[in-house]
Amino acid sequence: MCTLLIAYQVHDAVPLVIAANRDEFYKRPTQRLAFWDDHPDLLAGRDLEQGGTWLGVSRHGRFAALTNFRDPAAVLEQAPSRGLLVRDYLAHHQSHDAFVQRLCAEGARYSGFNLIFGRLDALFYFSNQQAGGVEPLTPGYHGLSNHLLNAPWPKLRKGMDGLRRWQPGQQGQVLFDLLADSETFPDALLPRTGVPMAWERLLSSLYIESPVYGSRVGSLLTWEKNGRLTLEERSYGNGDGPHEPRRFELAVSLANM
C-alpha cells in the first residue's frame, strides 16, 4: 500500500473514511479482497509471495494498513515481511497492548514502514523511521504515502484536497476517480528519497503506471457510527488483469472490539 487518504472523526455519521492505492510490482502474485480461509474473521487482499497484507479489517473491529518508507538506506536484507504485521494484528494473535509493545521492541528489524492501526474509536500511527513510538491519530484529514505521516508531497496535498471536498451521501466513485488521477508534478516540487529522479517523477502521481510497477488496486473503506463497515476494492488491471469490483459490508459492534 502506497497512498492512504484518511478522514478520521470528521463526519459525524461516518467517523472513518479511507481511500487508498496499493502500488506494487505487477509480477508479485496477489489474492483479491476476500475473507481468508486460514483466518476466517480477516478481510483483506493477500500477498501470495510472503503471506501478509497491506490493508484490511476484521470482524472483531480492527483495522490496519501499511505503507513502505521509500529510502534505499531503510531496506534491510533478510528482514521479515512488513505485511505480516498487518496480518497478525487483524488475526487477533495479540492484544492491542501486546502488539504495541511488539512494534516498539521489534520495529527496527523491518525495512522502513508506516502503520495505521486500531479501531473505529481509537486509531494509531507508528513508523520505524522516527523516534517516539506509537502515537494516537488525531481527528482530521491525514495523508500517508512512502514517507512520514502528512509529509508535504504534492500527490498527498492533491489527494487530501479531494477528500475534503467529498461528503457523506456522495458516491464512492468520486473517491475512486481521485485515486485514478495520473497527474505528475514538476521536479522542483518532488521529494528526494534516494531513488533516481526518473522514479521520483513516476511515483509522484496518485495513480502510477509503468511497464513493471504501478497501482494495482484502489480501496475505499467507510466505517459508520452505527457500526456498519464497507470495504470495496477496484482492480486497475495491472499485473493480473482487470476484475469486477469487490464489495463487502460488515456489522461491527464496538462491544466486540
UniProtKB/TrEMBL annotation:
PANTHER family (alphabetical): SER/THR-RICH PROTEIN T10 IN DGCR REGION, TRANSPORT AND GOLGI ORGANIZATION PROTEIN 2 HOMOLOG
Protein name: NRDE family protein
Organism whose genome encodes this protein: Acanthopleuribacter pedis
